[in-house]
Amino acid sequence: MIYAKVGEASMVYTGDYNMTPDRHLGAAQIDRLKLDLLITESTYAKTIRDSKHAREREFLKAVHKCVSGGGKVLIPTFALGRAQELCMLLDDYWERMNLKIPIYFSAGLTIQANMYYKMLIGWTSQKIKDSHAVHNPFDFKHVCHFERSFINNPGPCVLFATPGMISGGFSLEAFKKWAPSEKNLITLPGYCVSGTVGHKLMSGKPTKIVLDKDTHIDVRCQIHQLAFSPHTDSKGIMDLTEFLSPKHVILVHGEKPQMAYLKERIESELGMPCFYPANNESVSIPTTHNLKMSTTERFITSCATEQGKQSLRKRNLIHGTGTSEMNDSDEAVAEGVLLMEKHKAPKIMCEDELLQVLGMGRHLVQFETMNPSGLEAAVESELKRAEAADLGSEGK
After folding, report:
1. Nearest 5 degrees, angle CA 111-CA 112-CA 113?
2. What would the DSSP string read from start to end of 49-60?
3. 335 is annotated as an active-site residue
4. Distance between CA atoms of residues 160 and 76, nearest Å
């Protein structure tokens, strides 16, 4: 998450986040900030997920049933994040169940990602940090690298392959080979964009996938969809928004109907103006600029003194000793001067204090009343002086 501040205006841009801890990473954390704007992802703007443990049990049960029947399990996943999460889950389960069926990684990128997880163990969940001294959870005992030639090997196995949406690459290659068999299983753990093979599989159980005019894939395998996406759900978005309490919210990275639903919830339940602009659309967010300033001790004392005088006048009126009218809404006002100097914080002070800062003495302007004859003489004298000045300029 990125926090940006310009002057007194500030905002947070979340990127992708999850408010629920994983096996390998903790929940998203951020300080409570005073924000004008929160820009948050909204991938699952309308989804409320069930128990994480229930999803894990369902996933393990489906995988175990498939490999026990001699089938192959294809898990299309991104190289970073879900691959490590599900590998930890399967590796632990394989250890407990004493299974000897191979679990494979197809992507060299995933192996590199695992290396960085080992190096940056301090960024992982507290559970991993606590157990790291005894065993590094990213040293998977039952997971090994997959060679392309293994794709036609007989017998059961589990394969993690990229990309996660089966839009190309090795996950698509394995899908072409394994989809026609009823014994095999395709498990889709994350979000798939419309138009990809993964999205077509999630939208229903198709019997045929048409890639192009020359490539048709018979789909007889089992299809299992589980919400193991790293994105937070609708509850997580609402929780973060309520925690940060920004003045305005912008939703990005989502689908328009779901974003419209979440916008209504944020505005009705949290009372925050919310926007979900289309690509290239501009949004103008008003901000309030507050000027912080200090006051001198003497000015505070003068305010207190004036307040005391005001209270005394009110008491006198109540007891019938005052002569002037006073309303309950009348407030004591102490006059001060706001001094704003370059590269210094603004400060409110008394008038005498300002004179000391400027090194000046108090100047007074006095007016004297003139009688009519004296005023006429002064005006006549001024007119003659002006005429003399005009004649002098004409002579030049």
Report:
1. 90
2. ---HHHHHHHHH
3. no
4. 6
Q: For residue 137, is the peptide bond before it cis, meaning its omega torsion is within 30 degrees of 0?
A: no
Distance CA(293)–CA(348), nearest Å, equals 7
Alpha carbons 273 and 250: distance in angstroms, whole number: 9
* Active-site residue, selected from the candidate residues 8, 41, 335, 376: 41
**Structure-token pair, residue 310:** 């005001």
Beta bridge partners of 39: 13, 250
Cα maximum dimension of the chain = 126
Residue 94, phi then psi, degrees to nearest 5 = -60, -40
Contact 233, 10 (CB under 8 A): no
Token pair 């310009």 is at which residue? 6
Gap between the Cα atoms of 269 and 265, Å rounded: 6
pLDDT tens for the chain, residues 1 to 396:
999 998 778 999 998 998 888 878 888 899 999 899 999 999 889 888 777 788 889 889 999 999 999 999 999 987 677 788 888 889 999 999 999 999 998 766 566 777 787 788 878 877 777 777 677 777 788 888 888 888 888 999 999 988 888 888 888 999 999 999 999 999 987 778 888 888 888 887 788 888 887 888 888 999 988 767 778 899 999 999 999 999 999 999 999 999 999 999 999 999 999 999 999 999 998 876 667 788 899 888 888 887 777 776 666 665 555 444 545 445 556 788 888 888 888 899 988 888 888 888 888 887 777 666 666 777 778 778 777 766 665 555
Q: What are phi and psi of 237, to 5 degrees?
A: -65, -45
Nearest CA-CA partner of 159 in 187, 127, 193: 187
CB 38 within 8 A of CB 246: yes
Name the H helices within the chain: 52-68, 82-97, 108-119, 126-131, 169-178, 197-202, 234-244, 256-265, 297-318, 351-358, 372-395
Q: Are strands 248-252 and 37-41 parallel, antiparallel or unpaired?
A: parallel
| Whether the Cβ atoms of residue 161 and residue 74 lie closer than 8 Å to each other | yes
**191 φ, ψ (degrees, to nearest 5):** -75, 140
